[in-house]
């Protein structure tokens, strides 16, 4: 075909396409389906984390099966060992999951996440609705790390309420952390504080869920001092900042009082949001006091000076963890949990007042801090209940 003939054919085709709108539309549909499919597929992939059942996978399936895979890996490595050796190995695996000797009010679990396109709003910031969505998965991961024995016995931790205090935006594609710590508890509710923070990029890769050693190294002050140092929020990326609370400032609402409860981040991270969650411990429909569940896992106050050790551990477990192990049967495959389940379902009520080992485990300085922190966090619940009574 000559160049002149090609030009004539191109001109004729172009004039035909532009002759009527319907002809042009048919041409677009005929010649551009591949491009449309590409963009539709790309949009579909961008929202992969919001596909149907992905939430169920992230919240319920993935955390549980990560633990199961670890269990199976240990089992397969010892598949040819004797029965006695197998029981010892699996019992050690289950004990190592427990936070033995840790201070519950200084224990922090960190879950890392990033602000994907499906989680952001039209301002290219993490949407307000995405905070509780991502917190669902983080909360269950933290619960499995804090109370592995309780869940193994058939327990669960329903959510009673969630409160948010937004401070500054998290931009799209930014990596952020949800740092969850226990603030206080009463006879029914466990109050947890979650800080949404961003940190500077680091070349080293860290596990997705870790207990923050830095937080444990900076314990909560005790005595008559303030529960935590005052919070100073850095400037936001846009140049604005949230005013810092000073010693003489009186918070105008309970959500702002939570800010006074929080310490400055030990690594200089930027705080974006504070959340307070109310959780309770259930086995079936029976409520278990939080102190019972926490002491069961090995959380405890420091050992007395005359013990000769500075901190309880798996090698030197606290008395409450020894009591917890006596409620189980490690010499039976997978552990025998009937006695433990009976205790959780109400057997703890039959223990005399002076022999309640879970109260002794969380006494002293821990009890003092718990009572002080409770006054701050329960104000959020009382304010919401007051609003419901006033306006309903």
From TrEMBL:
Bias (Low complexity): 233-246
Cross-referenced SUPFAM superfamilies: Thioesterase/thiol ester dehydrase-isomerase (SSF54637)
Signal sequence range: none
Region of interest (Disordered), residue spans: 205-252
Pfam families (UniProt xref): 4HBT_2 (PF13279)
Transmembrane segments: none
InterPro entries xref list: HotDog_dom_sf (IPR029069), THEM6_lcsJ_thioesterase (IPR051490)
Family, similarity comment: Belongs to the lcsJ thioesterase family.
Protein name, per record: Thioesterase domain-containing protein
Originating organism: Phanerochaete carnosa (strain HHB-10118-sp)
